[in-house]
Amino acid sequence: MRLTDKVAIITGAGAGIGRATALLFASEGAKVVAVDLDLQAAEAVVAEVGASSLAMAIQADVSVLADVQRVVAETLDRFGRISILFNNAGIVPHGKIHQTTEAEWDRTMAVNVRSMYLMCHEVVPIFLKQGGGDILNTASAAALRSVVDRAAYSASKGAVVALTKSMALDYVRDRIRVNCLCPGTVDTPSLGQRLAAFPDPVEARKQFVARQPMGRLGTAEEIAQAALFLVSDEAAFITGIAFSVDGGFTV
Ligand SMILES: NC(=O)c1ccc[n+]([C@@H]2O[C@H](COP(=O)([O-])OP(=O)(O)OC[C@H]3O[C@@H](n4cnc5c(N)ncnc54)[C@H](O)[C@@H]3O)[C@@H](O)[C@H]2O)c1
Question: Is there a contact between 182 and 242 (Cβ–Cβ < 8 Å)?
Answer without folding.
Answer: yes
